[in-house]
Each structure stands twice: as C-alpha cells, then as structure tokens.
C-alpha cells in the first residue's frame, strides 16, 4: 500500500509540473502575441502622418526610404524628374543658363540697334497709282559704326503746333527681317494711303510733320510731311526694307 501511494504521488507531481509548464507557455504566448502584431502598426504610424503632410509614403516601417519617392514624384506628389534636371549637383538651377544667354543676346541686339540720335529721317516723293499713294520714309545711318533696324516704326501725322492729325499708322505687310546699315547706308518703310475720291470716307486735315519712333526705339524723330494727307480712312506702314527710295 505504501509503494502504491508513493508511485501515485510521484505521478501527481509530474502531472502538476506538466500543467504548470503548459500554463507558462500559454502565458508567454499571450504576452508576446499582441506585441508582435502591434509593433508594425506603431511603426507604420509615421508613414501615415508623412503621407498626410507631404503626400509621399516613401518610408519603410523602420523609417528608412523605400525608394518609392520617384514613383510618387511621377504622380505629381513630390519633386518631378524634370525639376530634378533643372538643378545642378551644386544645387544651382541649370535652367537659368538659357535665360541668361537669351538675355545677353537680347542686350547685344539692343546695343546693335540703330537709335534716333544716330540716324537722319526724310520723306521721299509720292508714288501714285491705281488709287493708292505711297511715300517712302527713309532712315539713314549717320553714325560712325554699323547698326541694325528690324520691324515697324511708329508713325503719326502732326501739325506744327504738335496736335495730332487722325490716328497713328497701322501695320501692313509682313514683318520682314533685320536690315544692317553701314555708316551712310539707308533703309526705308512705305506709308500708304488712298487717293482723294476713291472712298466716301472724308480725308484728314493736311499735316506738316511726320512723327516717327524708329523700330525698337523710345526716342522720336520728325521730318516734314510736305502736306501729306490721308484719305479714305487708310493709313498704314510697312516693315523696314533695305535701301533708300525717292
């Protein structure tokens, strides 16, 4: 009887020990399980806030870049590939170079332009035909260096007291190209109106002066108009052409 009792007692102790071990394992699983699933969620929180602030989810759960930036940039949520190309390795915009070159070219063109103070101006003889009247307005380079003219001048007719006659000339014909004037050389434009009686539109008063802004210039020039009068409501000017007429 005593032997049996001891055997049974030992069996109970073994069984009790097994139950304790199982319980310990179960407790360990309960403690480690929630942590294992919650850590990625807590690590994902900065990614979510980063998305909300900048629209770029290019971070891993550990906060390191995942390489998703270029993809989000392609979607317009970050620096684009084109904007990246606009900056040099030193961080300076490389796109400024063409603009600077264009500005320099524009400055050079402006310095090469014929100005009012280096030219003389005269109105040539009229050319009448088929109801139209054309007057050559001639620019001559009186300076000591070559210069260029291009485009349309601004032309108005005035009286000697400075009052305007009618409206400024409108542009007619093509814009043409640049005309290079060596010292002493001339270029011209044509002033065009209609002969009296061709149209029922009344003629303007006679003028005494032609008031001109050379192409690209803010300084005016004047010359006598020889009584030029606009009729038929038609008064236009062509772009600069090489040579002096009349």
UniProtKB/TrEMBL annotation:
Q: Which Pfam families match?
A: DUF4232
Task: List, as start-end ranges, the regions of compositional bias called Polar residues.
Answer: 31-46, 69-86
Is Signal among this UniProt entry's keywords? yes
Q: What domain of life is recorded for the organism?
A: Bacteria
Which segment of the chain is annotated as a signal peptide? Answer: 1-23
Q: Where is the composition biased (Low complexity)?
A: 49-63, 97-111
Q: Which residue intervals make up region (Disordered)?
A: 31-111
Keywords, ordered alphabetically: Signal
Note the InterPro entries from the entry.
Answer: DUF4232 (IPR025326)
- Which intervals hold domain DUF4232? 114-240
PROSITE patterns recorded for this chain? PROKAR_LIPOPROTEIN
Record's protein name: DUF4232 domain-containing protein
């Amino acid at each position: 009887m005593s032997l049996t009792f001891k055997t049974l007692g030992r069996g109970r102790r073994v069984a009790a020990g097994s139950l304790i071990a199982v319980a310990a394992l179960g407790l360990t699983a309960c403690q480690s399980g929630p942590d294992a699933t919650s850590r990625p969620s807590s690590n994902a929180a900065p990614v979510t806030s980063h998305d909300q602030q900048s629209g770029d989810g290019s971070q891993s759960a550990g906060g390191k870049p995942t390489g998703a930036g270029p993809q989000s940039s392609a979607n317009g949520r970050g620096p684009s590939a084109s904007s990246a190309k606009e900056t040099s390795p030193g961080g300076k915009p490389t796109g400024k170079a063409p603009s600077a070159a264009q500005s320099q070219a524009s400055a050079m063109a402006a310095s090469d332009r014929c100005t009012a103070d280096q030219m003389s101006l005269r109105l040539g003889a009229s050319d009448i035909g088929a109801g139209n009247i054309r007057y050559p307005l001639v620019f001559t380079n009186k300076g000591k260096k070559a210069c260029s003219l291009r485009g349309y001048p601004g032309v108005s007719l005035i009286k000697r007291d400075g009052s305007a006659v009618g409206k400024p000339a409108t542009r007619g014909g093509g814009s043409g190209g640049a005309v290079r004037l060596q010292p002493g050389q001339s270029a011209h434009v044509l002033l065009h109106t209609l002969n009296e009686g061709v149209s029922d539109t009344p003629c303007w008063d006679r003028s005494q002066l032609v008031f001109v802004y050379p192409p690209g210039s803010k300084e005016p020039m004047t010359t006598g108009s020889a009584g030029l009068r606009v009729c038929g409501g038609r008064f236009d000017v062509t772009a600069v052409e090489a040579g002096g007429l009349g």
